[in-house]
Amino acid sequence: MENFRRAVRERSPLIGTFVKTASHHVVEVLGRGGLDFVVVDAEHAPFDLGRIDVMALAARSIDLPCLVRVPALSATAIGAVLDLGAAGVLVPHVPNAAAAEAALAAAKFAPGRRGFSPSPRAGGYGTLDATAYRRQADSGSSVWCQIEDAEALAEVDAIAAIEAVDCLFLGRADLAQSLGVESPRDPMVRAAVQTVAEAGQRHGRNVGIFITSGDEIPALAELGISVFVQGSDQSFLLGESRRTKAALAAALGSALSQPSCNQEMAR
Question: What's the pLDDT at 260?
């Protein structure tokens, strides 16, 4: 975990994806695919703590850094997923420096307020020296603050100035909603992305962003953004399914204009 956090803080180029399917097999398969990390999405997908436990274990089995997007800025949720061995947390809706400090306090033993027990997976089930575990956990756990509210844009320099924040993560869909525009491609959202990227550059803070296609990477990288979360396991599966069907259609042409078996059964 410490190596992963170091790579984030050094602004190394990293790419991962969201995991929205509550299956540990998905994490294992994605790890085989060579991604740098995954983010288990407990904000927008059906993950309880028991299922996150299994997902974190699967990630560890294949040496794949696994972050968890917690449902909200909750000290209980943040501490719990780190106890399970997550490499870090992605905290949604961090509007100001006070919220960022609260997230850090929940994630760090010192000088934070994270409840301490050496008994979970992260503590080696009690086999690690307590002092060494606290030091290891604090140096290894990565805290990403999601910038997805209009208020956060006004406060982004104050958030970026906090040394222990590892990554400012842009959520363009929520930003668009907060700014009162329809599309994440709106000029107001593009300007917001540049604002956050520039704040990251000023303070030496990494900036990450959700993307739907790798085609976006070059332009975003020019802004200094180096962490990318592309799609999700669901979008990967959907995209490959569509490509497979399109390949069949291209090979067989008009024969596929007839209803499929599934379509016939649905009538």
Answer: 56
Task: List, by residue number, the catalytic residues.
Answer: 44
Report the 10 Å Cβ neighbour count for 88.
26
Place of tokens 């904000």: 43
Structural domains counted in the chain = 1
3-state secondary structure the chain: CHHHHHHHHCCCCEEEEEECCCCHHHHHHHHHCCCCEEEEECCCCCCCHHHHHHHHHHHHHCCCCEEEECCCCCHHHHHHHHHCCCCEEEECCCCCHHHHHHHHHHHCCCCCCCCCCCCCHHHHHHCCCHHHHHHHHHHHCEEEEEECCHHHHHHHHHHHCCCCCCEEEECHHHHHHHHCCCCCCCHHHHHHHHHHHHHHHHHCCEEEEEECCHHHHHHHHHCCCCEEEEEEHHHHHHHHHHHHHHHHHHHHHHHHHCCCHHHHHHC
| Residue 187 identity | P
C-alpha span between 70 and 4 (Å, rounded)? 19
Sign of the CA dihedral 89, 91, 94, 98? negative
Candidates 112, 115, 114, 116; CA nearest to 131 is 116
Mean pLDDT of the region 6-34? 97
Structural contact between residues 27 and 161, judged by C-beta atoms closer than 8 angstroms: no
- What's 191's domain CATH number? 3.20.20.60
Q: Could you read off the pLDDT of 141-179 as tens digits, one per residue?
A: 999 999 999 999 999 999 999 999 999 999 999 999 999
Q: Which domain holds residue 167?
A: 2-266
Dihedral sign, Cα of residue 208, residue 103, residue 18, residue 6: positive
pLDDT tens digit string along 36-48?
Answer: 999 999 999 999 9
